[in-house]
Amino acid sequence: MSHEPHAASHTLDRLIYMANQIGGFFAVQGHDKEVAGVADHIAKFWNSRMQKQIFAHLAKGGDGLKPNIKEALQVLEKRQQAQAAQQQ
Fold this sequence. Notes:
With about 90 residues, the chain is mainly α.
């Protein structure tokens, strides 16, 4: 019996928690700085596996993510897609 589905959901729950916590840190700076700060922090400090997992969760609706965090993830994902397109 594999515990992978449980481990994956636990990891996702942790990523959601961390993303919301990062947002809380930047929230006092106002909406625009919160969104930019969260996007920059996740870009710098989360590995690609973590980012892919949270982006996949966002694509499914992003349950548990605060609205500004969803926005920050959308900004980051679009930024990364634009960078990838420039490299081609």
